[in-house]
Amino acid sequence: MLANLNDVLIPARKGKYAVGLFNAVNLEMARGIIAAAEETGSPVIMGTAEILLPYGPLEDLSYFLVPMAKRAKVPVVIHYDHGLTYEKCLEALKLGFTSVMYDCSTDSYEDNIRKVKEMADIAHSYGATIEGELGHVGDNPGDGGEVSGESGKETAPDPTLYYTQPKQAKDFVDRTGVDALAIAVGTAHGAYKLPPKLDFDRIDTIANTIPTSLVLHGGSGLSDSDFKQAIEKGISKVNIFTDINVAAVKAVVEHCENTGKGMTEMIPYEVEAVKAETIKKMKLFGSVGRY
Q: Which of 63, 143, 229, 260 is most buried by its number of CB atoms within 10 A?
């Protein structure tokens, strides 16, 4: 059944579990995600991100993501993640997405508020929900905290400078009306080469400062204990893509390498791998059996 973020995240916050967002850039990934949710009785968030549109155009994805959600036996949110432009967020809403994230986190604080507030009003007029980001969850450099310069290695900027500030989070939520807030607490997008260090105390403080559901981006590659502690401290939504994306490729390579098989013979392995990895995350997040 088609749902929005509030339908699945408000119960998650109260129940101290998290709901996963699993991005799907093709039909096979979507099939695996829905199968996992239905088999485990787990609410789920499925969608795509602006950076992934070269691999699956937004309009094309909407033709199967939204209908699949409608006929699913569990609540399925169709979410447009890390929308970088007003135009694409609006397009997603018009195509039937039930949630958007308008990522203005690299703008000035006041511009972030102004732009997200405008999109929040639009999203709510569609009966959809909106996620904002405060602080900035960057890309993972994977280089041990150093960057190259003309004179050799230079220390990278302190990442804590971009972490979400609790008092500012309250002001942001109050002024924008967002339904979920992505916070910067030590994760990064992409695969990790070195273990991240999450600021669990910051998660706890923010969760006790605002009533809004908190989102952890850059989830792929975190340890099980990291996930569990982050959820216990107040995270209600976790974003996953790299793990299911890599699992699908590994399955295809394992079963189809040097066999001369066609694409149709690869599809079942891709679907099953995405399903298995999604179930693993749902169990870890505690969302199994919540519907």
A: 229
Tell me phi and psi for residue 277, to 5 degrees: -70, -35
Position 221 in a domain? yes
Active site residues: 81
- Total domains in the chain come to 1
Residue 248 lies in a domain: yes
Give the separation between CA 2 and CA 29, rounded to whole angstroms.
Answer: 18
Amino acid present at 284:
L
Does any domain span residue 194? yes
202: Cβ–Cβ under 8 A, 6 or more apart, which residues?
A: 163, 164, 166, 183, 185
Q: What is the pTM of this model?
A: 0.89
237, 45 contact by CB (below 8 A):
yes
The model's pLDDT over 66-91, given as tens digits with 9 standing for 90+, comes to 999 999 999 999 999 999 999 999 99
Bridging pattern class, strands 146-149 and 152-155: antiparallel
Asked if 1 and 69 count as a contact pair (C-beta separation under 8 A), the reply is yes
